[in-house]
């Protein structure tokens, strides 16, 4: 799981290559959150807030992402709305490999 905005295809491309080299599916989660909701969340943040123009630019990039991401090579794309977020659960697709226990020789 990579937690980042990645609203441009050239930012997602290395992540796709990483998944391919690890032989695991690349899954994208697109959060379709309105500008108004983002502005409200931003105002409620206690730390650093993002400027309005950045949020507006992200909305424009999100619209481009929604129209192009299907052709980028993701194994699965989940499109999520604000109503989906409270019950959202993300699970691993596979377990990490465990190393063989160290052997002591006598």
Strand content: 5-15%
N→C terminal distance: 43 Å
- Based on the structure given, which CATH architecture of the domain at 1-41 and 60-83 is correct? 3-Layer(aba) Sandwich
Q: What does the average pLDDT come to?
A: 85
Note the run of SSEs as H and E: HEHHE
Number of helices: 3
Helix content: 25-40%
Number of strands: 2
Rg is 18 Å
Predict the CATH topology of the domain at 1-41 and 60-83: Rossmann fold
User: How do the strands line up in the largest sheet?
Assistant: 1-2
Descriptors:
106 residues; alpha+beta; two-stranded parallel sheet; 2 strands; 39% helix
Task: Offer a concise description of the structure.
39% of the residues lie in helices and 11% in strands. With 106 residues, the chain is of the alpha+beta class.
Characterise this structure.
- The chain is an alpha+beta fold and 106 residues long.
- It has a domain of 65 residues: 3-Layer(aba) Sandwich (Rossmann fold).
- It is 39% helix and 11% strand.
- The protein contains 3 helices and 2 strands; from the N terminus they run αβααβ.
- Strands 1-2 form a two-stranded parallel ribbon.
- The longest helix has 17 residues.
- The C terminus is likely disordered.
């Amino acid at each position: 799981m990579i937690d980042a905005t990645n609203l441009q295809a050239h930012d997602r491309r290395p992540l796709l290559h990483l998944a391919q080299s690890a032989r695991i599916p690349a899954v994208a989660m697109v959060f379709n959150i309105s500008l108004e909701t983002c502005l409200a969340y931003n105002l409620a943040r206690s730390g650093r807030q993002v400027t309005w123009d950045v949020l507006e630019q992200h909305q424009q990039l999100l619209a481009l992402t929604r129209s192009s991401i299907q052709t980028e090579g993701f194994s699965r794309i989940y499109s999520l709305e604000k109503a989906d977020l409270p019950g959202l659960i993300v699970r691993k697709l596979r377990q990490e490999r465990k190393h063989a226990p160290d052997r002591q020789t006598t």
